[in-house]
Every structure is written in C-alpha cells, then in structure tokens.
Structure prediction request, 225 residues.
Amino acid sequence: MKKILIVEDEVKIAQLLADYLVQSQFMCTQLHNGDNVVAHVEQEAFDLILLDLMLPNKDGISICKEIRQFSEVPIIMITAKVEEIDRLIGLELGADDYICKPFSLREVVARIKTVLKRSKPAQLANDTEVNKAIELDAHSHNVKIYGCDIELTAIEFNLLQILAKDPGRIYSRTQLIAIAYQDHRIVSERTIDSHIKKLRKKLQDINLKKDIIQSVYSVGYRLKI
Prediction:
C-alpha cells in the first residue's frame, strides 16, 4: 500500500481525503499546520504528498522548496487560489501536479495514481543500475561493488544500504542518524561525515572511476551510480 501524507489545515477536508484514500487502498498520515512537515518527511518515507498551499506557520510553497532540497517524493499541491502565477510558482518549485478547490475526491485519487505511475519508471531504472553495481547481504554484511569485495563496518554498511535503497534521493545527516542508529544513541552530524569519509576512502581503494556517494552542500548525501 502506498503511503500518502496529507498536509491540510482544514481538518474536515483532510479527514474526507484520508477516508476516501483509505477506501482506495492507500495508507494516510495527516498534518494540519506547516511548521513540522519538513521534519516529518525527513523522518518517514512517503510515496506522495498532498500539500495545501495556505497553511498556518509555514506556507506550502516554502515547504515544497525545502523538501525538494533533499527528496524527490511526488508532491501534488492543493489550493483555493486559481491565479496562473500561483500555478507557475508551485510547479517551478518542484510540485508534480496542482489541484484547485473545490475538487472531487475521485479526481484527487485519479491525479495521485497518474503522478505515481509517472514517477515509477525512473525509480525502477535507478534501482536496476544500483542492483547491478552494488550487492548487499544484510545477514552477513558482505558487500560487492562492481564485483569487488569490500569490507565495511556495521555503520558503514547501514549508511550504504540506506543510500542504495533510494538512489538519487538526498538524505540529510539527521535522517541518516535516525535510520542508521536504531538504538537512538546521541550522535553528532560530524560523526556521520566521518563515517561517510571512511566509506568513500574504501570505495576509492577499489579504484572506482567516480565518487558514487555525492555531497550536496548544506543538505546531506546521495548515492549516484
């Protein structure tokens, strides 16, 4: 089941959307203000976000822009504003589609399915390339990169596994800490940088022609095959 994040300050509308989407075989999470949306997306993986333009504390355009700094999760913006400039601003900032209120619930589901279908092929292509390049055995922690064996520590293995699960996605240091350290120990962002540096060195030692773990300035890291 695909996971949908509904960000809508009108609780009744959010609940109607959630109820209809659940009936259409989606899982839903609701948020009703803008100040904690980005942090929520950093901590939990969603397949698509329904994002209202006008929200308390932080507007949808700002949220969309911030999310696009670290994630390519599909975003459909919802608004009561119909001015063309709002449409252009929303889509230029990385929104995948735009729905204006009032809308039919059936239309929302149709738009969601269309956007999910449209975003799927690129992801599958990335996954195929990664599967050819990186072989990870979670039980033995054995790793092969382009056919070459490489020895990693448990944390290095976890970090590589996280990045390889969603190639091209930018993970913030906070996200990597939350996922890599399941015991919830206190870890600094510099510690993550240190582990990434050591991981890169091991990858360089097997004579890779390119750095497959890329830094994104002031944001985090991504894997690029």
